[in-house]
Amino acid sequence: xxxxxxxxxxxxxxxxxxxxxxxxxxxxxxxxxxxxxxxxxxxxxxxxxxxxxxxxxxxxxxxxxxxxxxxxxxxxxxxxxxxxxxxxxxxxxxxxxxxxxxxxxxxxxxxxxxxxxxxxxxxxxxxxxxxxxxxxxxxxxxxxxxxxxxxxxxxxxxxxxxxxxxxxxxxxxxxxxxxxxxxxxxxxxxxxxxxxxxxxxxxxxxxx
Length: 208
Hints:
mainly alpha; Arc Repressor Mutant, subunit A; Tetracycline Repressor, domain 2; 2 domains; 10 helices; DNA-binding; HTH_TetR; HTH-type_Tx_Regulator
């Protein structure tokens, strides 16, 4: 019963965050949408931030299988796995949904802290570092510093290119991609090939 209530809270909150936005959604809106008491909400979540984190985790879990499949694909070498994960991330409706419901993280210290912890605790150790290390071992990635390179890639992708932290103009996005490709070329890594850049251009053009 408790699990069902928690799932309902997450489902209602997700819909409200998508339609009203995080900032304009109040706990009272979630209570009204559920038909539950305030106590029932706070039995499962301490705050709106906690509910938001649960929503993001629920959406993000849908990506885990995709990323695990890429990581475990024996037909790909390290640099190919890294490139495929980036391609998947930039053409992924679940990630678009997370961006769509999220506030500017600089205005929400607790959410920013949770986001950075996720990078440190999951993104780097579970995905980027093992793949970079594999690339070094198979010769597709050239570095003596796998851990530091993995951290740099994570910061560039998840923070520097993140529209929830940096409000990038379209031209700035492509300038950053060009700089990132140039910086990573030293390690034999190109995360953004011409096909991915074209996909991003189409998405950005739709926003205009």
